[in-house]
Amino acid sequence: MSEEKRRSWAEPFKIKVVEPLKTTTRGYRERAIREAGYNTFLLRSEDVYIDLLTDSGTNAMSDNQWAGMMLGDEAYAGSENFYNLEAAVGKYYGYSYLVPTHQGRGAEHILSQILISEGDYIPGNMYFTTTREHQERAGGTFVDVIIDEAHDPESTHPFKGNVDLRKLEDLIERVGAEKIPYVSVAATVNMAGGQPISMENLRAVREFTQLHGIKVVLDATRAVENAYFVKRREEGYADRSIAEILREMCSCSDAATVSAKKDLLTNIGGFLATFDEDLFEEARSLVVVYEGLHTYGGLAGRDMEAMARGMEEMVEEDYLHARIGQVEYVGEKLLRGGIPIVVPIGGHAIFLDAKRFFPGIPQDHFPAQTLAAEIYVDSGVRTMERGIVSAGRDRETGEHNYPELELVRLAFPRRVYTQAHCDVTVESIESVHDNRESVRGLRMVHEPKHLRFFQARFEKL
Length: 461
Ligand code: P70
Fold this sequence. Notes:
Strand content: 5-15%
Strand order of the largest sheet: 2-8-7-6-5
Structural class: alpha/beta
Oligomer: single chain
Distance between the termini: 44 Å
Bound molecules: ligand P70
C-alpha cells in the first residue's frame, strides 16, 4: 500500500491521557462469558480488552470539552450551559427549539407520548430497538418502509437507508393518513449496518408526506456521519461543508430526537429539537415529569457544555475522515480475509454476517449471539448481537421475530482505539472464522420482558 494511502485516514489529534487495559487468558475469558450467560452486555468492562460493544457514550472527549466541564453552571434553572447548547443546536442542526434529555431514549419517550395515539402506525426506515419500544408503549405499531436492499447484507446500494416511497404510499392507502402521525427517519440506519439515507430520498419523503399532512421526525443520532456519506457519494454535495449538509437534512424534518452519546463526542446526553412551536410547548411541559426541568432535562450543566463544544468538533472534516476511515480500514481488511460482512461498510461500525459466518447454526440457536461470545473468548474483544435476540418477539403471536439480518456489530468508539487495536480485532475474527466448524449454538435460559437482548442469558448447546 502506498504511503499516501496508508496515511489517508490518520487521526488529526494526539493522545494526552491514557487508560490502562487488563489482558486476560483464554481460560479466564471462558469463565467470564459463561458467568455472563453468554451475553456480552453482562460482562464486566474490566474483563474486556478492546470494547467494541458500542460507540455510544464511549467517545474520548477533547481537551476543549474537558475544559468546558469545569465551567459547568449547576444551577437548577437557567444554566448558562443550556443557553450555549441551545445556540449550538440552532447553529449546527438549525432547529428553533430545544428540549434536553438525559439520553436519546428520553427524547424518544417524550416525542412518542406526545405524537402517538392508540392504534396509530409509525412507518420508519427499519426499526431501532428503543425507538420502536417507545412507539409501541405509546400505542403505535411500527411499519418498516426501508428499501428492500437494506435487508440484503450483500447489496452494495450506496444509500441502503433510503425509504421506499411505494411502501409508504401503500401504508397510507391501507390505514389512512390520519392514523400516521409521523414518519420516523433514521440517519444513518443503525440496524441496517450504519447505512445512510440520501438527501434526494429524504427530500422526496418530505415532499410526499407534506401532501398528506404527515410529519417527519429525524433520528439524528448519527446524522453527521450520514452527512459525510452524502458528501462522498451523492452528486452535487462534494463541495458542500458537513455543517451545511447537516442543516439541509434537518430542514427536511419537523423535529429530531438525538442521542448525544454518538456524533456529539460526549459520554452522556440527548435532546429533542424542533421547528414546531406547539410540539415544543408540549415537550417542554412533559420533560419536567420524566427528565428534569426544561433547562437541564436530566443532565448536569457540565454535560450540556461538553455537548455544545462537541458539536463544533463533530462537523470537522478531518475528524470525520479519520473516524469513518478507521471503520473502513477494519472492514476492508476483513473483506480481504474472506470474512462475510455487511456492505457497503457503514459509518460507525462493521457488521459481521453471522448467517454466512456459521451456516450450520439455525437462527433459533442464535448464531450472532454465539459469534459475539466466541470472539470475546478468543481475544477479549467485546461486540454486540444485532439479530434475532435484538428483534424480540411479535407482540401478537408471541413468536420470535426472525429478522433477515443476523449480525454481530463491532462499533467503534470515537477517538479511542489505535490502528494496532484494529489489527488485533481483525486477527481475532479471522481465527474464530478458521475454527468455525467446531462451534455450536446457544439456548436461551432467561428472557426479560422488555428489550430482552440487554439481560437475556444463554447456555451452550
Ligand atoms: C447503540 C446505542 C442508541 C440509539 C441509536 C439510535 C439510532 C436512538 C438510540 C437511543 C445504545 C443502544 C441502545 C439500544 C440497544 C443497544 C445499544 N444506540 N437511536 O449502541 O439512544 O442510548 O442515548 O438512549 O443508535 O447503538 P440512547
